[in-house]
Amino acid sequence: MSMKIMFVAVLICGFASVGVTAPIETPAEVQLTGDWTVSVTVPGSHPVAAEVEIPGPDIVTVAHEKYDRLPDFDAKTSAGWRRGVRLKGVVAAECTVEALLDPESLVIRDGLEPEAKTFKKGIDYEADLVSGTVGRLPEGEIAPDQPVYIDYQYAKQRLDSVVLSDDGRIVHKMGTPHASMPEPPALEPGEIRLANIYISGRLNALTNDHLYPILETVYPEPQANSTSIAEILLPKTLEKLESGESLTILAWGDSVTTFNRYQTMFVERLKARYPNAKIELVTEAWGGRNTGSYLSEPPGSEHNYQEKVLNKKPDLIVSEFVNDGGLSEAQVEERYGKILADFREIGAEWIILTPHYVRPGWMGLSSQRNIDDDPRAYVKGVRDLAKKNQIAVAEGSLRYGRLWRQGIPYITLMDNNINHPNMYGHKLFADSLMALFPKSE
């Protein structure tokens, strides 16, 4: 791969959040010049240029990490984080972060003393060296309830920034390392972020996929016009918000909705925008399931669709189903068409929340850059269905697809490094929901 790969960082005029008094209006050129060096040029009447050295990954050495017992290694599951005990350094919520573990560093012993027995991989234990999980082999020498001590090395992720300082210098600022959710460094007054550099774990060198020039500082909200989506497609909801008549909102979804984050933010913002609003929020969510799961549940079950969704007779239903992401356009047309008919029969208005981006490999993505367009057929199916049937769509997907432009690899917003957004990720959902409603005067 050529190291002369160039990017353009568009610096947004009026970067008021960092107190810029003389915002840069010309682009900054960001270019790889070596394994760990980046050249940055800000052109203009007084151009500024610098070559910046980026520190390599943060390597952590773990010694004698104790586990009271090892489960049997489960080679049958396709989920690597479920194959055995999760090494603590690479844990991300209920999962692990792939490729952080140095596979050659793993050593398992039966004690702390120098003469402690060292167990053998493939004989006494097995390990998923990509996912960072370990389990005993029943035919080996690790007893079912035997404590073990594990040594290993792993790399934390990091999101550094190249910054234009208030005195006109181009400098490197190191972000906060974290296994799954690294954060970029905070800016001082007068500083402008030119690019983020994503250290995605164990790396031998940077590539273009690790460079995130700042192309925009915020999501480009549509210009306010005379008529909002809510006025056209959610008139009953809007009328109740404005009049103060009781409004019931049902948040219906999968594990993302079980966290009660985006829907709570949404309702709080509605109340702030409509001071007279009387809103009851009801959440019906089922982790690890999808709309088909609900439709298949028999009467009397905990998540029966008729009893837990339709019989609630909400005024507004907000649905979030990232677990429907594997549906084809035809399947969306069939299943969501039935759901639409059911909702209209009970008089409920509907907002479909398009899903966040998930683990890149699951979406067929080879990079977290240049991903404005969601590749999932499900998302296209939802948009087509909504357009044909006048359904409101809150575009969470569009906001996630542009994060790279803001210098953010979207996977760094996932609590579990796969598909569970953190608080900022849920804020993006709330933003997309509020964008449907008229803006305050």
TrEMBL record:
InterPro entries documented for this protein: DUF4815, SGNH_hydro, SGNH_hydro_sf
Domain of life (superkingdom): Bacteria
CDD domains: SGNH_hydrolase
Keywords annotated in UniProt: Signal
Gene3D superfamilies: SGNH hydrolase (3.40.50.1110)
Keyword Protein biosynthesis included in the entry's annotation: no
Residue ranges of domain DUF4815 in the record: 143-205
Residues spanning the signal sequence: 1-22
Pfam families: DUF4815, Lipase_GDSL_2
Residues of the SGNH hydrolase-type esterase domain: 244-428
MF GO annotations: hydrolase activity, acting on ester bonds
Protein name, UniProt field: Uncharacterized protein
Protein source organism: Rubinisphaera italica
